[in-house]
Design brief:
eight-stranded antiparallel sheet, 31 strands, 34% helix, globular
């Protein structure tokens, strides 16, 4: 027995040793697999470059590239993008070409995305754009592709991204095909899609009309820009001057008749399948402001920008510097800033003469057309039956049978309701319209980005601009997406320029509003676009009398003072707050500096609290349990309504808000994740002045008509009970940051899609964040509820980067992105900027060669050769 016990112990020891060895081997293999894609950031590499190129990388892995000619600059940019972000690039080109199923295998979500994008034809249009570009732009795109291919040539997929190894456990992974210039062009379609402005509002307006059937009530929930209290980008003499935030409510009246369509529901469901690559809905906002030297400490302009976009791991932007060693006819670039992996050039940044920022302009560049389609593949137009355009495409599914789809188009564009044809039903239409028949109407999409254009030419022109005239010239080429440009020059100029290809719509008296806010009858030629706004007629300003420009997605001009760009724009809470902060500083004799510009972008004041909290504090509270909670709102008011992570008042108010908008609108409109975005904040602000308005009434309660105050009391009770259950009984212990957290999600290996160890590796842990929807620090969240009926306050989008450029000393500028430059999770640069971004800090942005050299940690030299 004694020998048997010793034998068992020896067996257990041997087994344990074996398991330890297996575990050690597994860990070793995992470490090797993780580190295998890490690129060399130092040394000398012979490649297909034309001349020697020097790549300096700083402590955060940011690459500054020095070359003797433009082709080598873009070759090297493609090379470093591929070094750090190739899987991201490959994922994007697969998505934008409708080939996601080819990458990830059999998945209903991937297949739906492929169907939708093939139907929209992003790649199809991009291929048509190539011959339209200047020869110079073609050469730059080709050089960039050559650089990408120089890096990936001879490397297996697992050497380019850890993601390929993980996908290889499920599907067959092939080595990536070479990069092409059209791969870069197609990425512009993804940008344009997510930044397309009122697409969501147009569909939602039609769906809401079906729900309530009352045009006046629809106008109440689509109130338009409040010109009476918020200034447009280019104010008129009658525009308000923001010195503080408005409280109270005003009424805006903008009447129009409407066409509702059940076919719209199929379009909404179908296009939800398109992955969000840049941003969506209220998440596609941005702040930008530029201040003239008269108001700055340095005496030269200061420009700030922080685009609010989808937040992922890795982040959307890639910081880079592109420097010619000497300006010659063959070497014309000296620019730095934020690029997109997969695209040559710089999207937002500065050169030696000029800095620029971009915000979404809110231009209406999409229209949905109801089409009467017949079974013989024709559709009705101007009394005739016109043949549909048709093409068949095959979607390759990794590990499964291919899927064929039939794509149909009218003269307006692709029929998007084909994606979910079973959802199409009959629909009410104007008198005299053709019958919808048994199958109802179908929906097509007219979109400026489906017309081939030259936006890539505009990117290179902007990178080399030095004057306001240069900016205007670049803007004339910048067709889609329509991005508002603020700029400043080292010679002291500041300005604003509106670019974009903006449709001109006819004004038609009739049952359907013709301003682009409602779907249009496709059979009537009277509703066709009448051309596009001429570039010379687009709004602009140089050196305005105010001494600053604020562009934060609000209306661009006052009514009648410029071309019509679109009705559905941000209501202006962020822009008004920035204007108030600037005016308050300047009226007190203060001047702005880089640090204070960064502080403005971090301002977290809640946009509606100043109007709503005083009403709450005046309510008669019979429940001491609720009254105890309301007390934190008085303290929050005294602090200035900050949406700070450590604020108990912000936790309570935002929870009240989630229940308030849901109780007010969901009973008639259904659950909508847009509840709570900037538009709904404006809707509620106006309704506060009408305590008996029908929207306050809960139509599901029989023989009871609720008022504003009753809904407020119920929402207070909901919020008090919820926070007591989830945080603490004592309201002083509630924290907004415990509810409102940021989660940076990998597009393929998300927490819901990947095994837990891999998910933890690829997705940084959630953390509390300041700000909220429509605050200047716009860490947006959507009003959605989990399976337990609790609101989800998770951050859905926010500042993808922050930059401040000091035109007096470009080396004094600052920048930061959300995660880091690298897409490799084992790299030290995968998330090394995340803590700074979270804490509102920024890094020095070296510009001159002396500053870049001083900051350099590693030097990689590319030399000509095999």
């Amino acid at each position: 027995m004694k020998d048997e016990g010793a034998f068992r112990r020896r067996i257990l020891i041997a087994v344990a040793a074996f398991l330890v060895a297996v575990l050690a081997l597994a860990v070793t293999i995992s470490v090797i697999a993780l580190r295998r894609p890490l690129p060399a950031h130092a040394g000398t590499i012979a490649t297909d470059v034309g001349g020697e190129v020097r790549i300096e990388r700083d402590a955060r892995g940011v690459a500054h590239i020095y070359a003797d000619n433009d082709s080598d600059l873009f070759f090297a940019q493609g090379y470093v993008h591929a070094q750090d972000r190739f899987f991201e690039m490959d994922y994007r080109r697969k998505v934008t070409a409708g080939r996601l199923s080819e990458l990830v295998g059999e998945s209903e979500e991937a297949l739906n995305a492929d169907r939708a994008i093939r139907t929209l034809g992003w790649r199809f249009v991009a291929e048509q754009e190539w011959p339209l570009l200047s020869r110079e732009s073609q050469s730059f795109l080709t050089a960039y592709a050559d650089g990408v291919n120089a890096y990936i040539a001879g490397r297996e997929a697992s050497q380019l991204g850890f993601e390929y190894m993980v996908l290889g456990l499920r599907v067959q992974v092939h080595n990536p095909e070479p990069w092409t210039p059209v791969d870069s062009l197609t990425w512009l379609k993804a940008m344009a899609w997510d930044l397309r402005s009122n697409y969501d509002e147009e569909l939602e307006r039609a769906a809401s009309y079906q729900a309530v059937g009352d045009l006046n009530r629809i106008e109440e929930i689509f109130p338009g820009f409040p010109y009476a209290i918020h200034a447009p980008v280019l104010p008129s003499e009658s525009s308000p001057v923001a010195t503080s935030d408005p409280s109270g409510a005003v009424t805006s009246i903008r009447h129009g008749e409407a066409l509702g369509s059940a076919a719209i529901q199929s379009a909404i469901a179908a296009l939800e399948a398109v992955p969000t690559l840049v941003g969506r809905g209220d998440g596609i906002g941005s702040n930008s402001f530029v201040v003239s030297g008269e108001h700055t400490e340095s005496g030269q302009p200061i420009l700030a920008n922080d685009p609010h976009l989808v937040l992922g791991a890795p982040n959307l932007f890639y910081q880079v510097g592109l420097h010619c060693t000497q300006q010659t006819p063959d070497c014309t670039f000296d620019v730095g800033g934020f690029s997109f992996a997969g695209m040559p050039g710089v999207i937002i940044g500065h050169n030696s003469d000029l800095a620029w920022g971009l915000t979404n302009m809110g231009a209406d560049v999409t229209d949905f057309f109801l089409e009467r389609v017949y079974s013989n593949n024709t559709y009705e137009y101007d009394g005739d039956r016109v043949p549909l355009e048709r093409r068949t495409e095959t979607i390759v599914v990794n590990g499964a049978d291919p899927v064929q789809i039939d794509i149909r188009s009218t003269a307006h564009g692709p029929i998007i309701s084909d994606i979910l044809p079973e959802a199409i039903t009959s629909t009410p239409v104007p008198a005299g319209s053709p019958s919808g028949g048994l199958d109802g109407y179908e929906v097509s999409l007219r979109w400026t980005a489906l017309d081939p254009g030259r936006t890539v030419d505009a990117i290179f022109a902007m990178n080399r601009a030095s004057t306001a005239e240069d900016v205007a010239g670049a803007a004339a080429l910048f067709e889609v997406p329509a991005q508002a440009i603020v700029f400043a020059t080292t010679s002291g100029d500041i300005g604003f320029q509106a670019p974009g290809r903006i449709p001109i719509r006819p004004v038609i008296e009739g049952p359907v509003a013709s301003d682009g806010t409602w779907p249009r009858p496709g059979w009537d030629p009277a509703y066709e676009w009448q051309g596009f706004v001429a570039s010379e007629d687009m709004p602009s300003v140089l050196n305005p009398g105010e001494g600053f420009v604020v562009a934060a997605n609000q209306a661009v001009t006052a009514p009648g003072e410029g071309p019509f760009l679109g009705a559905d724009v941000d209501p202006g809470f962020r822009s008004n707050r920035i204007r108030a902060l600037l005016n308050g500083m300047f009226n007190g004799g203060g001047k702005i500096a880089v640090e204070s510009a960064n502080e403005i972008m971090l301002d977290s004041k809640h946009p509606i609290a100043e109007a709503l909290v005083p009403i709450i504090l005046q309510l008669e509270l019979k429940d001491d349990f609720v009254a105890d909670a309301v007390g934190v709102l008085a303290e929050w008011r005294d602090a200035g309504y900050p949406n700070d992570a450590r604020s108990s008042g912000a936790a309570f108010f935002n929870t009240v808000w989630a229940h308030l908008v849901t109780r007010t609108f969901a009973d008639e409109l259904g659950d909508q994740s847009s509840f709570g975005d900037a538009r709904w904040i404006e809707v509620v602000r106006e309704l506060l002045a009408s305590p008996q308005n029908r929207w306050w009434d809960d139509v599901t309660t029989v023989s009871v008509t609720e008022t504003r105050d009753e809904i407020l009391l119920q929402s207070l009770q909901d919020a008090r009970a919820e926070l007591t259950n989830t945080q603490a009984k004592d309201p002083a212990r509630w924290l907004w940051g415990d509810l409102h957290q940021a989660q940076f999600t990998h597009p393929v290996l998300s927490p819901s899609a990947a095994p837990a160890p891999i998910a933890r590796l690829m997705n940084p842990a959630p953390f509390p964040v300041d700000g909220g929807t429509a605050s200047v620090n716009a860490t947006n969240w959507a009003v959605t509820f989990d399976e337990r009926g609790r609101p989800d306050f998770s951050m859905t989008s926010g500042p993808a980067m922050r930059m401040v450029v000091d035109l007096a000393d470009l080396d004094a500028s600052t920048w930061v992105v959300t995660t880091g430059t690298s897409g490799h999770p084992s790299s030290g640069h995968f998330k090394d900027q995340l803590a700074a971004w979270r804490d509102g800090e920024s890094y020095p942005w070296p510009w001159t060669e002396e500053a870049v050299t001083e900051a350099s940690q590693h030097t990689l030299t590319l030399t000509p050769g095999e």
